[in-house]
């Protein structure tokens, strides 16, 4: 009465060889590199708006960490130039603080001490800078 099903069911399990697998460590490396690269982009934007030696140093440290996590591939750098106004700077410092926090969580999860220390230092620096910019 019924015609037999001639195609595979959409509910059948996929063949494990059909897609690439990454280890937990590889996934955490990818996440950490992404968070640090996003933090680097915000840092570059802050450097363009309000140049400072500590931001230059932080950008270089972030770039080297991202390169290390990506197997030596240098991260793309931002060359943003916009008008300076205080609320924008405060928002950038807040965003950088949040990104550094995310990087810290992933770095702690993968037991990457160097990245965790860098992320914690960036959190402290951006928290302090956000208070200073917001107070003016």
Quote the beta fraction.
under 5%
Q: What characterizes the major β-sheet?
A: none
Order of helices and strands: HHHH
Principal-axes shape call: elongated
Tell me the number of helical segments per DSSP (H or I, 4 or more residues long).
4
Uncertain parts: none
How much helical structure, as a percent, in the residues?
A: 55-70%
Mean pLDDT: 85
Termini gap: 81 Å
Radius of gyration: 21 Å
Strands, total number: 0
Structural class: mainly alpha
Description:
The chain is mainly α and 136 residues long. The protein is 66% helix and 0% strand. Helix 1 (24-49) runs antiparallel to helix 3 and helix 2 packs antiparallel against helix 4 (113-135). The radius of gyration is 21 Å and the shape is elongated.
What topology does this entry show?
Elements: H1 24-49, H2 53-69, H3 86-109, H4 113-135
In short:
The protein has about 140 residues and is mostly helical.
Key words describing this protein structure:
mainly alpha; 4 helices
């Amino acid at each position: 009465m019924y015609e037999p099903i001639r195609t595979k069911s959409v509910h059948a399990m996929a063949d494990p060889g059909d897609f690439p697998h990454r280890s937990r460590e590889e996934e955490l490396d990818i996440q950490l590199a992404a968070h640090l690269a996003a933090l680097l982009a915000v840092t570059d934007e802050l450097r363009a708006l309000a140049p400072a030696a500590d931001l230059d140093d932080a950008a270089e440290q972030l770039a080297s960490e991202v390169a290390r996590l990506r197997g030596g591939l240098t991260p793309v750098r931002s060359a943003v130039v916009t008008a300076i106004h205080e609320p924008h700077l405060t928002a950038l410092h807040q965003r950088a603080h949040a990104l550094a926090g995310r990087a810290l969580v992933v770095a702690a999860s993968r037991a990457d001490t160097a990245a965790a220390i860098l992320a914690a230092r960036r959190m402290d620096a951006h928290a302090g800078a956000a208070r200073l910019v917001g107070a003016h």
